[in-house]
């Protein structure tokens, strides 16, 4: 028997879906996506299930993304699975965004990429003090997907551009400040929360019941947000119109309070795929004006081209396969990424076009 990668349990009207690949940091593969979708579809029409909880086993990660190695192997094999994965993963995320019942995402440890896609779709987003959250895709030559083109540009100021381009991780205080989480719950209170869920008398308004239950145990604001402290610098630099000017703006930072951060951010930018960062910036610009469904459709439009024309295969080779940590990005510098090269990826996409929509 292979290990069950998604554990399913219903207790006291609460459907618990537990990601169970702790050795792989609960990264999603196609089988897990299908199990989650099947169960959510079944519970949608089940009057006995009032609330859904998304969680994971292990303390290291809620979900550290998608199984990137599997997608790399699929593209090399020419079997098409990698596109099936994206289509079904995005459809799962879209279902969660519109789910008819409250969905509580309990985030402990790493919440990256595909994990963010699940969590940001939930109606109730709870982090613990151990959370490390982010969209690190540009580091492997990819772009923020799983609805990132929708939720990142809707953050205040230029926070979404900063997080999307640099792939920076944020902790609990930042997650609350940025609007990427609703509550912070101490990890040692998780068992108490479970007990409360097990004994809650659900009313006709389970979302309000859940609000009250969390309100008694969790915080909606905690001190120490680094992004709050850096906010004016982030907004100034990352509101520049293109990546070369964002980089130049950071390089010209002369305020002592922001110098270390600016140098660190420059180093981060210089390690990432220039093409992926430029496409990410344009993706977030377009996503700000698009519906959720069109954002997913645009991400798929890019996916169909990216493995052949983008930097993801080289990024995965350098960082995951060969582990030489020396990706040969194409082109190698921001100055060599032409506006035309970026525009090519978006050519032919028509918002609202039903053929591009997810099933």
Describe this structure in words.
- This protein has 359 residues and is of the alpha/beta class.
- It has 2 domains: 6-134 and 183-215, 2-enoyl-CoA Hydratase, Chain A, domain 1; 233-356, no CATH class.
- It is built from 16 helices and 9 strands.
- The chain has helices at residues 30-44, 68-77, 81-97, 114-120, 148-151, 159-166, 172-178, 190-199, 206-215, 226-238, 243-251, 259-271, 274-287, 292-309, 312-321, 339-346; strands at residues 6-11, 14-19, 51-56, 61-63, 103-107, 110-112, 124-127, 132-134, 183-184.
- A 6-stranded mixed beta sheet has the order 1-2-3-5-7-9, sandwiched between helices. It has a 3-stranded parallel beta sheet with strand order 4-6-8, covered by helices on one side.
- Strand 2 (14-19), helix 1 (30-44) and strand 3 form a beta-alpha-beta unit.
- Helix 1 (30-44) runs parallel beside helix 3 (81-97), helix 2 (68-77) packs across helix 3 (81-97) and helix 3 runs parallel beside helix 4.
- The protein starts with 5 loop residues before the first strand and ends in a 13-residue tail after the last helix.
- The model has no long low-confidence stretch (mean pLDDT 96).
Sequence-ordered SSE layout with sheet pairings:
Elements: E1 6-11, E2 14-19, H1 30-44, E3 51-56, E4 61-63, H2 68-77, H3 81-97, E5 103-107, E6 110-112, H4 114-120, E7 124-127, E8 132-134, H5 148-151, H6 159-166, H7 172-178, E9 183-184, H8 190-199, H9 206-215, H10 226-238, H11 243-251, H12 259-271, H13 274-287, H14 292-309, H15 312-321, H16 339-346
Parallel strand pairs: 2-3, 3-5, 4-6, 5-7, 6-8, 7-9
Antiparallel strand pairs: 1-2
Helix pairs in contact: 1-3, 2-3, 3-4, 3-14, 6-13
